Amino acid sequence: MNFLEKIVFFKKKEVHNNKIVHSIKKLEKCFLFERKTFSLVKNLKKKKTGIIAEFKLKSPSKGIINNTVSVEKVVKDYELSGVSGISILTDKKFFSGKNEDLEKSRSLVSIPILRKDFIIDEYQIIESKSIGSDVILLIANILSKNQIKNFSKLAKSINLEVIIEIHNEFDIDKISEYIDIVGINNRNLQTFIINYNNCFKLFSKIPNNYIKIAESGISNVNRILELKKQGFQGFLIGEYFMKKKDPGGTCKKLIKSLLQNVL
């Protein structure tokens, strides 16, 4: 099994177990389920930098990235840096994430939070709203066109915005009318190898009515400026910040430098 197949295999078991412990009815009664969500789409259109900063402690390919920082400090620092949104990994087995990281973050920041996980079941969409998410990610590589349409329609019905993550031309056909943002991932999720030109290769093939964001392997201002010139409005950056001792401070420096170049 490749990385992605392994993750999906364990995710199915995890979701099955979670359904037993927390029913959908129980999730819908959570106080966060009724909150008014923040819009990542509006923030990406409004802010000049478009940075979506990620909190990620570990990855299957790199192992531990950072195990000394607290989610509370990092997300607060990200917000103060002026990011457009924050991404929180909630997958436990492969990324050392947890739902509590997102719930804690929700109580501390007043900007959009993306729940970054491997969504394979409608249950996880309800769960995402109940823990304080504003945006969910649907990975085209692990879902059918029909699943993406149904999942994104459900998400929209509970006021969650939807990012579809694509990696190749075959994934483009899975984009539905309920999608808000198309994320092009430079990282192949089956091998975890990064191809820095993937974003540039796929950009023009995606309809212009979608906001487009670039994901993976972004680690300097020049790369962001190149992507901006192409037309990207958002940039998901995790590892570059998280592998530093002070992720929030690194994010602040990058945004300051970026603003000097885009003003």
Description:
With 263 residues, the chain is of the alpha/beta class. Helix content is 45%, strand content 16%. The strands form two sheets. It has an eight-stranded parallel β-barrel, surrounded by five helices. Helix 4 packs across helix 6 (99-108) and helix 4 runs parallel beside helix 13 (247-262). It is globular, with a radius of gyration of 17 Å. The N and C termini lie far apart (47 Å).
Strand content: 15-25%
Structural class, from helix and strand content? alpha/beta
**Uncertain regions spanning at least 5 consecutive residues:** none
Please tally the helical runs, counting DSSP H or I stretches of 4 or more residues. 13
Instruction: Determine the fraction of residues in helical runs and give it as a percent range.
Output: 40-55%
**Termini distance?**
47 Å
The biggest beta sheet is recorded as: 8 strands, parallel, barrel
Biggest sheet: strand arrangement:
1-4-5-6-7-8-9-10
Tell me how many strands there are: 10
Mean pLDDT: 95
CA-based gyration radius: 17 Å
What is the H/E string? HHHEEEHEHHEHEHEHEHEHEHH
Q: Which of globular, elongated, flat, extended, rod-shaped describes the shape? A: globular
Quick rundown:
This protein has helices at 3-21, 24-28, 40-46, 71-81, 92-95, 99-108, 122-130, 145-157, 169-172, 198-203, 221-230, 239-242, 247-262, and strands spanning 51-55, 58-59, 63-64, 85-89, 113-116, 135-139, 161-166, 181-185, 211-215, 234-237.
Topology:
Blueprint: H1 3-21, H2 24-28, H3 40-46, E1 51-55, E2 58-59, E3 63-64, H4 71-81, E4 85-89, H5 92-95, H6 99-108, E5 113-116, H7 122-130, E6 135-139, H8 145-157, E7 161-166, H9 169-172, E8 181-185, H10 198-203, E9 211-215, H11 221-230, E10 234-237, H12 239-242, H13 247-262
Parallel strand pairs: 1-4, 1-10, 4-5, 5-6, 6-7, 7-8, 8-9, 9-10
Antiparallel strand pairs: 2-3
